[in-house]
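Ticket opened by: R.M.
Priority: normal
Category: complex prediction / small molecule

The reporter submitted a protein together with 2-OXO-4-methylpentanoic acid and asked that the result be attached to this ticket for the collaborator who will pick it up next week. Submitted input follows.
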Amino acid sequence: MKYNISFHPTTKSNLDAVDFNNIPFGETFSDHMFVADYRNGAWQDLRIEPFGPITMSPANITLHYGQSIFEGMKAFKNQNGMPVLFRPEMHAQRLNASAARMCMPDVPEDLFLQGLNELIGIDHAWIPTTPNSSLYVRPFMFGTQEKIGVKPSSSYKFMIFTAPVGPYYDKPIKLIAANKYVRAVPGGVGEAKAAGNYAAGLLPTQEAHDAGFDQIMWTDNRNYQQIQECGTMNIFFIIGDTVVTPETNGAILKGITRNTLLHLLRDKGIKVEERAITINELVEAHAAGTLKDVFGAGTAAVIAPVSEISYYENKDDANYKTLKLPAIESRDISKNLKKELHEIRTGLRPDPHNWVHEVAVRDVAAV
Ligand code: COI
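Result attached by the on-call engineer:
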């Protein structure tokens, strides 16, 4: 279905103010945003308008009960200078999986894709081409009803805005295994990209920073042994010649970068296992010299090498132990994966899975 999306261009672009050689993550926003309002059971008033504040009632239901979900994806330029999106339909599907869990309405996949394509087509000049940069795309939905009462909102906003970004991490990260807090449990909302999951991670992460670590390695709630994720990313281990990542069990986000890397690894014939993995297994592999690599994988960071993992042997121990991981230069599999992914996304190598979708550029002046 083709939707009627109105366009209200900005009268003053901010593009000239951006230093594309020095882009902090998530602080600069492109000129326009896509907005759709859900009322009376239907998405309506579809529009692209200047990026800017939205007003809401202090009794907005989301501010109180957290009915809010989001996606994170990226746009690039290909070798012909055309904008491209990476696996946009999978992001649309995951948004709807999150929406279902949080009792929110579906955004039709073709509406998501049309709004997204038109927005990128208009703000294509905001896509950076400097190394390790991209246009981060943030689709999100939240309840808008004015009501103090715990129930699903009767109205919603679905919006997309974009932000030129540089790298998420500028160095390998140090992890501390959680032994006090949990991010999520099976049957909870950890598999949804729900805003509250990220809020739940703030205090543990702040405590980890205060203790000199970069991120938490999330573990299960029973004995803090079974590994789930790291920071806001899925986590991968290379043990011997096998790549292992925790299986999604209801507590783990079904990462699109995770899924992409699993495809690329299997395409190359590298052995991959999605299964439960414990800290104890890491300690043993480290002692045996077979723990070759650990990295986080997510849209924002892509592949984030882990330099060391600290852990408490017993839940109540006061002191932690640290596994120092092999030199980053020795990690050929993850280095090559990152390069391959970058080359697929920017058209430097074939795209056998049809992940990359070119976006039609819109001449804003002529709209
Ligand atoms: C992403 O990797 O895109 C995420 O959603 C993490 C975000 C909190 C920056």
